[in-house]
Amino acid sequence: MSGRGRRITDEEINELVCKLQSLLPESRHSNTGRASASKLLKETCSYIKSLHREVDGLSDQLSGLMATMDSNSPQADIIRSLLRS
């Protein structure tokens, strides 16, 4: 994007902020116009942390499910194949 040593322009920052805002779920940012860059970065960090928590929870659930399954069952084979892809 920007070359080494070249300062990023305000226009480029605004474009990146808009792109970042478009990646957040609607519930994470207000619909009353564009958020400030610092508020948007805080919301993004919070959203990423919540995604990490969700992944950890799903991983724990999957581990528990795998522990209760017969390792030779067709369901266990399906889960293993999904995890490999």
TrEMBL record:
<dbReference type="Pfam" id="PF23174">
    <property type="entry name" value="bHLH_ILI"/>
</dbReference>
<dbReference type="GO" id="GO:0040008">
    <property type="term" value="P:regulation of growth"/>
</dbReference>
<comment type="similarity">
    <text>Belongs to the bHLH protein family.</text>
</comment>
<protein>
    <recommendedName>
        <fullName>BHLH domain-containing protein</fullName>
    </recommendedName>
</protein>
<feature type="domain" description="BHLH">
    <location>
        <begin position="1"/>
        <end position="51"/>
    </location>
</feature>
<keyword id="KW-0805">Transcription regulation</keyword>
<dbReference type="GO" id="GO:0046983">
    <property type="term" value="F:protein dimerization activity"/>
</dbReference>
<dbReference type="InterPro" id="IPR044293">
    <property type="entry name" value="PRE"/>
</dbReference>
<keyword id="KW-0341">Growth regulation</keyword>
<keyword id="KW-0804">Transcription</keyword>
<dbReference type="InterPro" id="IPR011598">
    <property type="entry name" value="bHLH_dom"/>
</dbReference>
<dbReference type="InterPro" id="IPR036638">
    <property type="entry name" value="HLH_DNA-bd_sf"/>
</dbReference>
<dbReference type="GO" id="GO:0006355">
    <property type="term" value="P:regulation of DNA-templated transcription"/>
</dbReference>
